[in-house]
Amino acid sequence: MRVTAIGCTAVLLLAMTACGGREEAGGTGTTATGECQGQQTTGITDKSLKLGGIYPLSGPASAYGAIPKGIKAYFDFVNAEQNGIGGRKVEFLVRDDGYQPPKAVEEARRLVEQEKVFALFQTLGTPSTTATWDYANQQKVPQVFVATGASTWGTDTAHPWTIGWQPNYVSEARVYAQYLKQEKPEAKVAVLFQNDDFGKDLLGGFKRALEGTQVKIVAEQSYEVTDPSVDPQMSNLAESKADVFLNVTTPKFGSQALAADAKNTSWNPVHIVNNVAASVTVLKPVGFENVQGVVSSTYYKDPNDPTWQSDPEMMRYQAKMKQYAPDADPAVPYHAFGWAVASSFHKAMEAAKCPTREGLRDSVRALGNVQVDMLLPGVTMSTGPDDGFPIESMQLMTFKGERWELFGDVIDTRKEFGPLTG
């Protein structure tokens, strides 16, 4: 990991005097000094840091409500045992948007204007983030490490205050396309996708990655997040007799699609499920015996994989989750995701030259191969002036027994496929 200044000077940091700047009306700011003078310090003091997250704690994507539990456990651990981040205790406020974009906008306004948060840390979902990033940009509030892999977060230049974290959907799609080109070069693919920016982004990337190959998409079916079931779509896709099924869904519908595939004994395609619906919590209700051989991809360590049993970070995660979130099962991968992204924020905040909104905005766009211990070996965070994608490496995995098993090498999609451009 590259070494960067944490504050304006070492002396100032040791003295706990922040190099902040402009305090907005009603906010709690730090003292303006040095090169950071005039920058926004709402929501941050010498002793505290307030963040706000927006998640679907209810509604069709409520499985993702596990993520903030992992985040809060990490921040509680850091607050109690490491004196916070840079001496600042982190307060993490969580709001529920029910996976409804208008509600996400309402909650973003409440967090920024009433709660006076320093930053929006994690807005889950492509629709919700799309609905709120204009507001974050207008208010000049960092909207960092959003929980969505839409490629637009890294290619857009009009919203410098918003940035993703996880591998983008186009890069993920490229990994699946490469897998098929190698393993089933004449595959016929049926696709189920969520009818919004998320589903269209991954499907579009998959189609582009297949250009010039013999792999063909022979059937497509979309669904709405308000649909009660995807059974009708699955019946239609089964009629295609495709030998590969690409499952581009969020958890609720991913589980339904996996169950429908298992019930239809006359159709037995290779089943690829996208990462955001690949948690064991999605597969378990279907019955592990019914999801053997399903393929997906990942970039962070699975707490169910014995490979990491003696891994120092996994051991720390397991212990601290039990200590600071005793009601949350450490085996749930979404908790590990939350721990990993919170740790990533910790690294980015420490690297900020100024403990200001502008400092965080600049820090997340200047990450130089930053190592985060909950990420897979070989996966680091890197960004730059022409690269707004912190993580672009993934590894394929297949479900065996009662857990995912990694196979192949970590794929750096930057090197394998070239950078994404707007």
From TrEMBL:
Q: Which UniProt keywords apply?
A: Signal
Provide the Leucine-binding protein domain boundaries.
49-400
Highest rank taxon of the organism: Bacteria
* Leader sequence residues: 1-20
Q: Does the keyword Heme apply?
A: no
InterPro entries in UniProt: Leu-bd (IPR028081), Peripla_BP_I (IPR028082)
Q: Which family does it belong to?
A: Belongs to the leucine-binding protein family.
- Note the PANTHER family from the entry: BLR6548 PROTEIN
Q: What is this protein called?
A: Branched-chain amino acid ABC transporter substrate-binding protein
